Amino acid sequence: MHCAWRGNGGKCKTPRQRDNDSMSHRIIPVVDQRSHALPLPTVALAATGVLHDMLQRPLRDLRISVTDRCNFRCSYCMPKSVFDKDYAYLPHNALLSFEEIVRLAQAFVAHGVQKIRLTGGEPLLRKNIEVLIEMLSALRTPSGQPLDLTLTTNGSLLRRKAAALKAAGLQRLTVSLDGLDDTIFRRMNDVDFPVADVLDGIAAAQAAGFENIKVNMVVKRGTNDHEIVPMARHFQGSGITLRCIEYMDVGATNGWRMDEVMPSAEVVQRIHAAMPLVPLEASAPGETAQRWGYAGVDGLHDVKLGEVGVISSVTQAFCGNCNRARLSTEGQLYTCLFASQGYDLRSVLRGSSGSDAELASTIGQIWRARSDRYSELRSAQAPDTSATAGARRVEMSYIGG
Ligand code: SAM
After folding, report:
1. Residue 35 pLDDT
2. I want to staple 133 with a disulfide (CB 3.0 to 4.6 A). Which of 45, 145, 168, 206 is the partner?
3. Rounded to a whole number, what is the largest CA-CA distance in the chain?
4. d(CA 189, ligand 1 centre) in Å
C-alpha cells in the first residue's frame, strides 16, 4: 500500500499522529493580533452611496462574526492545542451588541451591500441569534429589496434551532461537514461529535423550509479526501449543494502545509470519474465557488441531480472580483480574509460623536482605499509558510469564515 507518511520504524502514520506531529512543530504567535488596529481615516470627506475600491471592486457582501467561540476544535481552524481552556476569548462587553451590529449593517447596506452572512466561531452559540436575524431581515437595500441573509454553521445545534431561524427570516443556510464516515468526522471536529447529529440538523433545516442548503467540506489530503465521492453521492439529487473547499493557510495556528491541499481540479476529476459533470456559469458576480452540474444520460446538466461546487482559494485565487468585507466579533473591519490588521469600527460606534454619517463615511473611505489581493500575490510567489507569515494573520474563528 502507498503510504506518504511514515514514522520511525517505517509504520504508516494515522491522520491523528500526523496532526500531532505538525502541531508539535508549530510556532504559536505570542502577539495577539486582535489588539492591533489600523488607523481610521479622518472623516473630513463624505463618502456615501455604492462604492468601488482601488481595483474597481464593489462592496456587496458582508460577513459578520457574532462570536469567537466554537464547540468544535477542527485542527484546520481552532486546534485544541491553542484553543484550550486557558484561551482568552473576547469578554462579553467587547462583543458588538445586536443593536450595534444592525447599525453597522445598515451603513454597509447604504454602501451597496446586498448579502449578509452570519458566521463565527459557531454563530448558533450566540444567545438569541434569531433576534438578530429578525432585526437584520427588516433591513432593505436603497432600492427597497430585502437582503440575501444567510448563516454558516457546523450544524451541531441545527436540529434545535432550524425552525426558529427560518421563522426569524433567515433565507439561506450553509452547513460545514467534512465527511460522512463517523470516525473521520469525529476525528476532524476533535470533540467526538457524531456525524448523525449534523445530518439530523440538515434534515431539520429542510423540514423547516430551507431550500438550496449548501454543505461546505474542507478537503485535507490524506485526512478526508477519500470522503469526497461518498459525500458527492450522498448529496446528489437531494436539493443540497456540496462545495469542496481547498484547505487554506488562514490564521496562524493550523500548521498549514501545501502538501495537505488537494487542488480543486483533482477534486473535480475524482467526482467526474464517478458521476459525470458539466461546467456551469457563475450564478452571481464575485461568487467564490466554481459550479459543476451532474450530467444526465444525454451528457447535459440534469437539474434534478443538482450541482457541486469547488472553492479554489489556494490554487486559483479569486481576488479580482472579491466584493467581501468582514466584521469581527468586536467590530473590527477586515477587507481581506488574509489581512493582519483591521479597522476598529466599534470605537466609531461607541465614540462620543459616533453619528450614522461618520460611520458611513469611515466605511466608505476604508473601502475606497482598499487594494488587497493577498491570494493572487501568494499564487505569483512560492507560498510563505514561515511562522512569521502566519503570525501576522488573524484567526478565521475571530474574523469569521
Ligand atoms: N462554525 C461555523 C462553521 O463551522 O461553519 C462557521 C465558522 S467556520 C470558520 C466557516 C467556514 O470556514 C467553515 O465552512 C469551515 O470549514 C471553513 N474553514 C475554517 N478553516 C478553514 C481552512 N483553514 N481552510 C478552509 N476552510 C476553512
Report:
1. 58
2. 168
3. 68
4. 11
Q: Read out DSSP for 111-152?
A: TT--EEEEESS-GGGSTTHHHHHHHHHT-B-TTSPBPEEEEE
Atom of ligand 1 nearest to the CA of 70: 1
72 class by beta-carbon count within 10 Å (0-12 exposed, 13-18 middle, 19+ buried): buried
Distance CA 328, CA 257 (A): 26
Q: Is 390 in the pocket of ligand 1 (CB under 6 A)?
A: no
Q: Is the CB of 313 under 6 A from ligand 1?
A: no
Atom number, ligand 1, closest to the C-alpha of residue 400:
9
pLDDT at 335: 94
Closest CA to 42 of 343, 370, 379, 383: 343
Q: Which among 268, 252, 253, 263 is positioned nearest to 220, based on CA atoms? A: 263
Residue from 198, 186, 290 nearest 245 by CA: 290
Q: Kindly report, residue by residue over 305-321, the tens digit of the pLDDT.
A: 999 999 998 998 778 88
Tell how far CA 224 is from the center of its chain: 19
Could you identify the atom of ligand 1 that is nearest to the CA of residue 250? 23
Torsion angle of C-alpha atoms 108, 109, 111, 112, degrees rounded to 10: 130
Instruction: Please tell me the residue having the least CA distance from ligand 1 atom 10.
Output: 401
Mean pLDDT of the chain: 88
Indicate the DSSP class of residue 371: -
Helix ranges (DSSP H) in 318-391 = 345-349, 356-368, 374-380, 387-391
**Pick from 339, 331, 393: nearest CA to 32:** 393
* 338 Cα: distance to centroid of ligand 1 (angstroms): 14
- The model's pTM is 0.89
* Ligand 1 near 401 CB (within 6 A): yes
Grid coordinates in use for 348? 466609531
Q: Is 152 in the pocket of ligand 1 (CB under 6 A)?
A: yes
Q: Are 397 and 79 in contact (CB under 8 A)?
A: no
CA–centroid distance, residue 337 to ligand 1 (Å)? 12
Going from the Cα of 35 to the center of ligand 1, the distance in angstroms, rounded, reads 23
